[in-house]
Amino acid sequence: MITHATDETFVATVIEGPRPVVVDFWAAWCGPCRMVAPEIDRLAEKYAGVVDVVKVDVDANPQVAGALGISSIPTIAFFPGGERQPMGVLGFQPMESLEEAFGLAQYLAPRAEPAGATA
User: Fold this and answer.
1) What CATH architecture applies to the domain 2-103?
2) Is residue 78 within 8 Å of 21, Cβ to Cβ?
């Protein structure tokens, strides 16, 4: 599930949240933002319950964007937990590139081998 944060809710949702957070800084008029949206949806589905996914409309929430120095969109940022300075990537990125850039695989529990499987 994707949460939408605002200037008023950003700190509680992202900085003080219980899990690591991927934040999509976007705007409705931004073509590349629309291109990355399905990748963000896939990320939210894959990491549901272990990594939160949040969207921030920079036009409606200029304080957050300004405080973090967001000057290009889309910017996808990763807050590993309790940190105010995220890792970030600019522009369209496929889900797999985001996973690699942010090291998200470490947050998925190892999958158990099926019964009867051998090494």
Assistant:
1) 3-Layer(aba) Sandwich (3.40)
2) yes
**Is the pLDDT reported for residue 18 higher than 80?**
yes
Residue type, 49: G
Token couple for 38: 């399905």
> Any catalytic annotation for residue 33?
yes
Q: What is the pLDDT of residues 46-84, one digit of tens each?
A: 999 999 999 999 999 999 999 999 989 999 999 987 656
* Active-site choice (14, 30, 44, 98): 30
Q: Is 87 a catalytic residue?
A: no
Q: Which of 33, 36, 40, 54 is catalytic?
A: 33
Query: Closest by alpha carbon to 54, among 41, 65, 63?
Result: 41
